[in-house]
Write a structure and sequence with these properties.
alpha+beta, seven-stranded antiparallel β-sheet, disordered C terminus
Length: about 850
């Protein structure tokens, strides 16, 4: 259906195309194709391609059937441009205009018409003009005009026929049916009136242009006939000379034509063509040779009973080299001479080529013996003396005749209907303004000629219908603006009605059936609606909550964990949480804090935003989580005591307290002790995690000398490094001035031990783990660098999570709980510091601890300890 519609409306539009080119003032097909693709999807592009291909193929004017491949390539290019334009329009509308088939929002309507109209049509007009230019279907001089006409035509096709197509097929049908009277009918009436006015204006202008052009054509025709008649008058005077004088010498012939205006008249030669019998040939050949036409040039004349030879020649240059040429040896010349002889009138040849290759036409006037025309055909043939011949250059004759006219206004062709040959001009291609073509038939001297004048570039430019196109384009622009305005009005009305119904339905459903607390807040953070569950959750009556700020009920804890003060919930925070589920704190009427889980959504209603807050009570979940944590903590504590005893006993056994053990027993005891140590560390880590989560871990800051801290951490991990055959190095800055921190020394050593042990575990044997520190911009940076395999970038976001392992398989070579880095990160942030790392696969990893540093805080100059 789309392909048929595209072709039909496109063909009707191109009947009014502006010459030259294929551009039209309004092209409905592009608007229909965009509307169909918006409604039914990108599969409609196939229909647009077929319709465009067939349309371009049907209007193509290809004179040479051998160019069918070029024609198919051209049709394919134009169809592909159509598909590209439609696809771009649909994609941009859906991407940027918030498109919906109801078209009830001003942004959607205006965005649709701007993106699908002026913007997308830049593609079709620009690329189509380039294709026409590349295929020599458009001249360089007409590029700008064709592009502008094409762009405006496609744009108007979108802005008028897209909404009309929507009214036929778009949903919701009730809305679009109601728009037929308010939008469709006014748009159609306005468009029909504008088109009718433009057609009337175009026909009136064409009539006036046609009358002007035809008047000029009649004048040209009369001028040509007058110029020919003047030359024939000279020939007739020559005929009278030969008719009245029984013997004319060549000197008399030349004297008669002295001072003749050869160039102005367009005459190349005047000849006396004498009838000679074969008996006289031998006598005359002593004076000049008998010749006949050859291809090319001339040759000796063949033997024949009679000859029509050029006896005398006169020309501007005095040329005499063709004297003796038998004109009757050539069919076209003989036909004209026979016609003149038999009728006793002027004979005229079809278009001929002279010996030198020039185009010419020959006129013959018969001369009879006794100077009078015989009455019978037999007598005229018997008493023929010869012919006065005028040889005209058709090009010079016509150009001199038309010198007073502007040649850019027309193209002239004169064709002999008997032979189909052209006296002047060549076949003229269709001008795109056939109503200006002038044709006249002229029968003279035995020939019937067709004179045809077609408008030239200047006349075409003046008669291309621009005035009517301005009327049509301007009127249709107003129609399209009217349609957009009416769509906006009806869309706003429909949107308001729809939103009222939707809001009523949504609120009724949510508030009446929800088992969770629901609060509806406006864009200022004021409560507009609550349900019964909200009243039960917070302890307020429902009327007491209306028009109150939402901060009265809800507060949140900022992300910075060191900030323990609740902040009132603001509209800015609501905007950040739209579409997310977050934990928040409720404030009851009695002042109790209620842990809540909040789901937040935003609804645009009319000219404001509404926020819907769905609250779930977490008190029961928090209670269960606390019981779970207490259970884990209790179990961990209960495990620590027996683990300590087991670990101590195994150490005594391994140390030989009960005597030296057999090697196999010694190995088993060592394995048990190693795993007991690992289990003890895991229990300690779990206890630390629990303390951190419940805020039970308190820091005990004191003065810590950084170099001594690193030396202590190195000493504690030296045995572990020796086990893995890894060397620990401490790099001391050149500035030996002591550097102090005011932090918890025990926790700093714990953090460093976690980093150092990880570096050792993941380092190859005989490699180096380096400890260092440096001061940069009031910050102290402590670094632990290894030469291991490095950390993949994909693991960066997970490395500080609980139980995170780069290799989580049971067979991983480096064992660990995956809690050390999580504990370290939490402790560092509690100290107002940060932890990060840089790594390169195959070359190693560097973990950095960054703490704020206060230069005035040292052992000798203490002012005030930082909080």
């Amino acid at each position: 259906m789309l392909a048929v519609g595209y072709f039909s409306f496109g063909y009707l539009a191109l009947m009014q195309a502006i010459a030259p080119g294929l551009a039209t003032a309004v092209f409905p097909s592009i608007g229909i194709a965009i509307a169909a693709t918006l409604l039914w999807g990108y599969s409609m592009l196939f229909g647009a391609f077929i319709g465009s291909f067939v349309l371009v193929f049907s209007i193509g004017d290809w004179p040479d059937s051998s160019l069918w491949q070029e024609q198919l390539r051209h049709c394919f290019s134009m169809a592909a441009i159509t598909v590209l334009t439609v696809a771009l329009a649909v994609w941009s509308v859906r991407r940027f205009a918030d498109f919906h088939t109801a078209l009830t929002h001003e942004r959607s309507i205006i965005g649709l018409f701007i993106l699908a109209g002026p913007v997308a049509c830049l593609v079709s007009s620009g690329l189509s003009t380039a294709v026409l230019l590349q295929g020599n279907l458009l001249s360089v001089d007409n590029i700008q005009q064709n592009w502008l006409t094409w762009w405006i035509g496609d744009m108007l096709g979108v802005m008028i026929f897209l909404p009309l197509t929507f009214m036929l097929f778009a949903r919701p049908r009730a809305l679009w049916r109601s728009r037929w009277l308010t939008v469709g009918l006014p748009l159609l009436v306005c468009a029909v009136l504008v088109i009718a006015l433009s057609i009337r204006a175009r026909f009136q202008y064409q009539d006036s242009q046609q009358q002007r052009f035809f008047d000029q054509a009649d004048q040209i025709n009369a001028t040509l006939q007058f110029r020919v008649s003047k030359v024939l008058q000279k020939m007739q005077s020559l005929e009278r000379l030969f008719a009245t004088q029984p013997e004319i010498t060549e000197a008399m012939f030349q004297q008669f034509l002295r001072n003749y205006p050869w160039q102005e008249s367009g005459v190349l030669y005047f000849d006396w063509v004498e009838q000679v019998s074969h008996a006289r040939r031998l006598e005359l050949e002593s004076e000049f040779p008998f010749l006949e036409y050859a291809t090319p040039g001339v040759r000796p004349a063949a033997l024949r009973p009679n000859y029509s030879i050029i006896r005398y020649m006169a020309s501007a240059a005095g040329d005499r080299h063709l004297i003796g040429l038998d004109l009757s040896a050539e069919a076209k010349r003989k036909e004209a001479m026979d016609y003149a002889r038999d009728l006793g009138d002027i004979g005229m040849t079809a278009p001929v080529k002279l010996v030198n290759g020039d185009d010419a036409v020959l006129f013959f006037i018969p001369v009879y013996q006794h100077g009078t025309e015989p009455k019978t055909l037999a007598e005229r043939r018997q008493q023929l003396r010869g012919f006065v011949c005028g040889i005209f250059s058709t090009k010079v004759l016509i150009q001199t005749s038309l010198s007073q006219y502007d040649n850019s206004e027309f193209q002239l062709q004169i064709k002999d209907l008997g032979t189909g040959d052209f006296y002047y001009g060549t076949p003229v291609a269709s001008s795109g303004a056939s109503w200006l073509n002038w044709v006249n038939f002229w029968s003279y001297a035995g020939r019937t000629m067709e004179l045809q004048l077609v408008p030239g570039p200047k006349i075409l430019a003046a008669s291309s219908g621009h005035q009517s196109w301005y009327v049509l384009s301007g009127g249709l622009v107003l129609c399209s603006l009217l349609g957009i305005f009416l769509l906006v009005l009806t869309g706003r009305s429909a949107r308001i009605e729809h939103l009222i119904a939707q809001r009523t339905k949504e609120l009724s459903s949510i508030l009446d059936n929800a088992v969770e607390s629901i609060i509806i807040v406006d864009q200022q953070g004021i409560i507009e609606r609550v349900n019964k569950e909200t009243s039960l959750l917070f302890g307020y009556t429902m009327p007491a909550l209306l028009r109150q700020p939402v901060s009265k009920l809800l507060a949140y804890l900022p992300e910075h964990k060191n900030h323990q003060l609740l902040q009132p919930l603001t509209i800015d925070q609501l905007n950040l949480w739209v579409g997310h589920t977050v934990e928040i704190t409720g404030l009851s009427e009695e002042g109790q804090q209620i842990p809540l889980e909040m789901g937040l959504s935003r609804v645009d209603v009319a000219d404001k935003h509404l926020y819907t807050l769905m609250l779930h009570d977490l008190r029961e979940r928090k209670k269960i989580d606390r019981m779970k944590s207490e259970f884990i903590s209790t179990v961990s504590h209960e495990l620590r005591t027996p683990l300590t005893s087991i670990n101590g006993s195994l150490g005594l056994l391994a140390g030989g307290v009960v005597g030296e053990l057999p090697p196999q027993a010694q190995q088993l005891v060592q394995i048990a002790k190693t795993n007991t140590d690992r289990l003890a560390r895991l229990v300690n880590d779990i206890l630390d995690i629990e303390k951190l989560e419940f805020g039970q871990l308190k820091l005990q800051p004191s003065e810590v000398e950084v170099l001594a801290l690193l030396q202590e951490a190195k000493e504690q991990n030296q045995a572990y490094a020796d086990k893995y055959l890894v060397r620990l190095d401490l790099v001391v800055p050149s500035d030996t001035k002591p550097v102090y921190l005011y932090q918890d020394k025990f926790r700093l050593v714990q953090i460093l031990s976690n980093l150092i042990s990880n570096a050792i575990k993941f380092s190859p044997i005989h490699s180096v783990v380096t400890l260092s520190y440096q001061l940069t911009q009031q910050q102290l940076v402590i670094q632990v660098t290894d030469q291991g395999a490095g950390i993949a970038e994909s693991f960066r976001s997970k490395i500080f999570q609980k139980f995170a392992q780069a290799d989580s398989s049971d067979s991983r070579s480096n064992q660990g709980s995956g809690l050390g880095l999580n504990i370290s990160k939490t402790l560092v942030e509690m100290m107002q510091g940060s932890i990060d790392f840089e790594s390169e696969l195959g070359k190693g990893t560097c973990f950095s601890l960054t703490f704020p540093y206060y230069p005035q805080f040292n052992r000798h100059e203490k002012t005030q300890r930082p909080e």
